[in-house]
Structures are given as C-alpha cells and as structure tokens.
Amino acid sequence: MNEKFKDLPEYLARKKENGSKIIGYFCNYIPEELIKSADAVPLRLVSGGVPEAMQAGEQYVKSYCCPYIRSCIGNRVNENPLYTFLDAICVAGTCDGMKHVEEYWRKYSDIPVFSVGVPKVSNRFRTREHTSKYFKSELTRLKKDLEILTGTKITDKRLKENIRLYNLIRSRMRRLYDHLNIGSSKISWRDIFRISHLGYLIDRDEFLGEITNILKELRIKTSSIERSEEQVRLMLYGSILAFEDTKVLDIVEASGGKIVADALCTGSRFWRKDVSIEGSLMDGLVDRYLYNIPCAHMMDFMMRLNYVIATARDSKSQGLLYYNLKSCDTYRSEFREIEEDVKKELGIPSLLIETEYSPADIGTTRTKIEAFLEMVRGV
Questions:
Q1: Which of 360, 357, 378 lies closest to 63 in space, CA to CA?
Q2: Number of domains comprising the chain
Q3: Cα–Cα distances in angstroms (integers) from residue 192 to residues 175, 222, 312, in the given order
Q4: Chain-centre distance of CA 334, in angstroms?
Q5: CA-wise closest residue to 172 among 241, 46, 274
Q6: 163 near 275, Cβ under 8 Å?
Q7: Which of 92, 122, 273, 329 has a CB 3.0–4.6 Å from the CB of 300, allowing a cystine?
Q8: Is residue 239 domain-resident?
Q9: If the chain, 379 residues long, is cut into consecutive pieces of 10 residues, what is the mean pLDDT of each piece?
Q10: Is residue 8 assigned to a domain?
Q11: Structural domain range at position 240
Q12: Residue 333: what are its φ and ψ, rounded to 5°?
C-alpha cells in the first residue's frame, strides 16, 4: 500500500504524457463520475496535517482560518507534487473557508477554476424542488466546463459506465467497513481509512481491483480471535480528517483506545450511497451527492445526528471522539447537541478535541484523551 502512495507522482506524470487532464477537487460534493467520463483523472486533494503547508497558507489567509483551508493553499505555495500536476480545479461552495480557497486559486494559479454552488438546505424529503434544480444546473455547468477543457463529450453511455464503476467501488468499500463489526476481523479502521485515501488518488479501475483483492484476502485470513476487551472502542466524527493528520489517532492508540467507526467526509460518508442509473443520469448524480449525509455547512442536522447514532450503535462504540479543527465553526457549533443526544440515546460519553496541524498541543491533547479513556473504563 505504501508503494502506491510513493508512485503517485510517476503515475500522474504518465497520465499527463498520455494527454490526460488532471482535475483536482476538495469536497465530496464534486461527482468524480463526471470527471472520469470526460476522460480526465480525478484527484481529491485532502492533504493536511503538515505544519509547513499550513504555515505557508497563512501568507494568504488569516491564521485563525481553518488549518485545512490554509493547507489547501499552502500545499500549492510549497509545490506539493500532487498540486503541481493539476490542469484544473473544482471548488464546491460549501463553507466560507472554501470560498477563500477558490479566490486564491483564481488569483494566483494559471489553471481554470470550476466552482460548483451547493445549496445550504439538503432537502432530504424532496419538498423543495428548486433545491434540486439549482444543484442540477451547477453540475450541468461543470459537465460543460469539463467537456471544453478535455475536448471529450460526456455521453450517457460513458457516464453510465463510470457510474457503474463507482457504485462497485462504493459497494466494496462498504463491505470493508462491515468487517469492523466482525469480532474476528483482521483489518482495522485505520487500515480502511488509509485505503479510502488511496481511493482518492490512484486510478479508479486499479483501486477497484485492489479492494476486491483485499476482500478476498479477508475471507481467507479472518480468524476466531475475539475483540480485545482492554481497548476502548471509539467512534470518530467531526471536521475533515486528512491522511497525514495522524496526531489524534496516534495518541488514541498509544493510550489504549481503538477507533472502530467514523462518520467523516473522508471516511464512511464518502462511500455511503450509490448513484441510480434508472432515468436521468444527471438526476441520479443530484440525488446521490445532494442527499447523502450532509456536511455541517448544510442545515439538516437531524440527518447527521441519526447517522452518528446509528453508526455508534452498530459498531458498539463506548465513546464518541468529536474531532474539530480550530476555526471550523460549522462542526464546532453542533458538538453540544450531538453530545447530549448521543448520551441520551446510547448512554455513551463524548470528548471534544479542538486542534490544528501543529505539535504544540500534543501534551494537552494526550492528557484529555487519556482522562477520557480512564473515565470510559471506569478507572
């Protein structure tokens, strides 16, 4: 798996040499199916956790801006290899921070920036027709922009083929997540989280083959070893968690905790829902991307809460770790209500961890997590 990450620059260089366009995006409201159907290479830019990139971004946005947003800018400033290959970038209009990212890339880069407006009301009951119409118009505009950039027409045939591919990938990733609820599983949540990030970067057909092989190996390797009762089972929810952002995960494991589930946009939520191929394909994309579990910038709090509670219950979590990047106000504002409702419904406690991509708070973060785990154990 590590070799796949190391080979990414070579893979992207090879794609560009063969004439493919590399399209980067940040939020999971951008349908990769459209990018791939334009014969381009989708690249989800979820790099974070590196202090140098965060600090470089502070030349262009305030230091009290979310560390992930600062890194989205700082990674280009520091010429992160993945960011130097881009031929265009897609920015979803979600939180205020993403607006700063769009402004920066428009002003300081020489590549096209495609913006996609995202309604603030998820409208899960489909009662506001204009919400779906607006998002469909935004995706239709993105489709045209991609066709102009690549010179490739996104036909229904091509789009349907790629929807089927991505539905297969999502289905098999959900099967991987299901293994976490098996007492004898030989795969950890952290393994699956790492696999998820690989899926944002490498060739998607190759990724499907990789996870298919992993599932086959798990069927053979699964033993009868039961879960360790010594480790406290935790669910993770909150702000975006980037691949390199391992500080909290490392502390949890070193302190005797174990992440067994998540409700993150870089984790289980990304793989949760398929795209329908019945009827209009663009309507299918709207339904999947707009009506998946919404990000905290959207107003449907109950949909998020129900997903958190169901996931914590299914995974037999003993506590909720609420991960909040500093200055990520959309997620921070919901913590108290989620804490109260999770306690009421499941009887489990929650811990708020506010942090950024810096080693400065390792000591205080470790103390909080250790004390929380002791409380859960009843020590």
A1: 357
A2: 1
A3: 11, 15, 17
A4: 19
A5: 274
A6: yes
A7: 122
A8: yes
A9: 80 95 97 98 95 95 92 95 95 93 95 95 69 95 99 98 98 94 82 95 96 93 58 97 94 96 96 96 96 89 95 97 96 97 98 96 98 90
A10: no
A11: 19-379
A12: -70, -20
